[in-house]
């Protein structure tokens, strides 16, 4: 494995983990897993994140072929520095439980809009249906599709998606995809298995601070590195 792949992999893995832990999609996966079968929630959320990672990396890989590489390099540098400052701002100005409460309120509103079924009854019904349904029917179940759509559209235009595009434009795209997918798998599995109890223990402030520092380090490194011709 070449150095460029390893560098792209390590950067993408670190960036993904620090961007996704405590993110809205992380909390959404944790809450959905309490209300529906974990296997379906994990499949839906993770498949959405994998699709988004591959798509973002392809956009980043194509960018240097459409515009001069020097431009994409400088844009990536500015993105990393900007996201670093943005994360640090969030760390000092947002309440720690704000995102979790926001996501839970939104999902509760969706639940009431769909008939006001209680969480426990909904999960029991889902488990019974899961036992009766064939594998293919479970794969296209409304729960899996709901988890996929909430995660996919929650990530669209998000800081982590734009950062993946920038990283793939400046690093080896294969390494970026591999690191991103492994990072997404780790975070999503932790959210689904740990549930809301794990989500409540995470300090969003510390995650935002760590992510901010990491983005700024990436930005400085990008600024100091030479542009490949």
From TrEMBL:
Residue runs in coiled coils: none
Pfam families in the record: GDT1
Gene Ontology BP term (one): Golgi calcium ion homeostasis
GO molecular function, one term: calcium ion transmembrane transporter activity
GO cellular component, one term: membrane
Residue ranges of the TM segments: 40-64, 70-89, 135-154, 174-194, 206-224
InterPro entries linked: GDT1-like
Record keywords, A-Z: Membrane, Transmembrane, Transmembrane helix
Recorded topology in the membrane: Multi-pass membrane protein
Subcellular localization, as worded in the UniProt entry: Membrane
Database matches in PANTHER family: TRANSMEMBRANE PROTEIN 165, TRANSMEMBRANE PROTEIN HTP-1 RELATED
Similarity comment: Belongs to the GDT1 family.
Protein's name in the database: GDT1 family protein
Organism, as annotated: Coffea arabica
Gene that produces this protein: LOC113717396
């Amino acid at each position: 494995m070449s150095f460029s792949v390893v560098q792209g992999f390590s950067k993408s893995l670190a960036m993904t983990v620090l961007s996704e832990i405590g993110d809205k999609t992380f909390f959404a996966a944790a809450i959905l897993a309490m209300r529906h079968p974990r296997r379906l929630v994990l499949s839906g959320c993770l498949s959405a994140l994998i699709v988004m990672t591959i798509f973002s990396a392809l956009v980043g890989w194509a960018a240097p072929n459409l515009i001069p590489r020097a431009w994409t390099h400088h844009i990536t540098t500015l993105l990393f520095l900007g996201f670093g400052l943005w994360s640090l701002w969030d760390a000092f100005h947002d309440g720690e439980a704000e995102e979790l409460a926001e996501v839970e309120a939104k999902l509760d509103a969706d639940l009431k809009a769909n008939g006001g079924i209680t969480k426990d009854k909904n999960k029991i019904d889902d488990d019974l249906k899961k036992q009766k349904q064939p594998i293919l029917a479970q794969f296209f179940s409304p729960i899996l599709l709901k988890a996929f759509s909430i995660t996919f559209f929650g990530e669209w235009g998000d800081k982590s998606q734009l950062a993946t595009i920038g990283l793939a434009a400046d690093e080896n795209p294969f390494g970026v995809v591999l690191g991103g997918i492994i990072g997404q798998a780790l975070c999503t599995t932790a959210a689904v298995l740990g549930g809301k109890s794990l989500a409540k223990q995470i300090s969003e402030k510390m995650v935002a601070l760590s992510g901010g520092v990491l983005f700024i380090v990436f930005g400085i490194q990008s600024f100091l590195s030479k542009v490949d011709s």
